[in-house]
């Protein structure tokens, strides 16, 4: 007997800023919510608003976990492809700043 297909609830992305320099999106996740598969065209910074645990689904079936600490940011390079899932039992939020232009 096969397992029925299940879908996760979507995370809510709220665009806060989008100009020639940056795109800023706040992401809010209920427990178990996901972004859906996507690829980042620019390098980006993630600033956690809340503590939480993410499940990162990666190409080829690999997975990884990431622990978020409110206020402790991290960066990622362009080209990252993944689905981000709230693996915790509480709501979580972060702000994502995509860097479109880096003038010198």
Automatic annotation (TrEMBL):
Transmembrane domains' residue ranges: none
Cupin type-2 domain location: 26-97
Protein name: Cupin domain-containing protein
Domain of life of the native organism: Bacteria
InterPro entries the UniProt entry points to: Cupin_2, RmlC-like_jellyroll, RmlC_Cupin_sf
């Amino acid at each position: 007997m096969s397992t029925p297909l299940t879908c996760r609830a979507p995370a809510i992305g709220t665009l806060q800023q989008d100009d020639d320099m940056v795109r800023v999106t706040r992401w809010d996740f209920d427990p178990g919510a996901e972004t859906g598969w996507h690829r980042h065209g620019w390098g980006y910074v993630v600033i956690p608003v809340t503590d939480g645990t993410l499940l990162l689904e990666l190409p080829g079936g690999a997975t990884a976990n990431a622990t978020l600490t409110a206020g402790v940011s991290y960066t990622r390079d362009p080209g990252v492809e993944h689905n981000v899932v709230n693996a915790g039992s509480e709501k979580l939020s972060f702000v994502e700043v995509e860097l479109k232009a880096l003038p010198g």
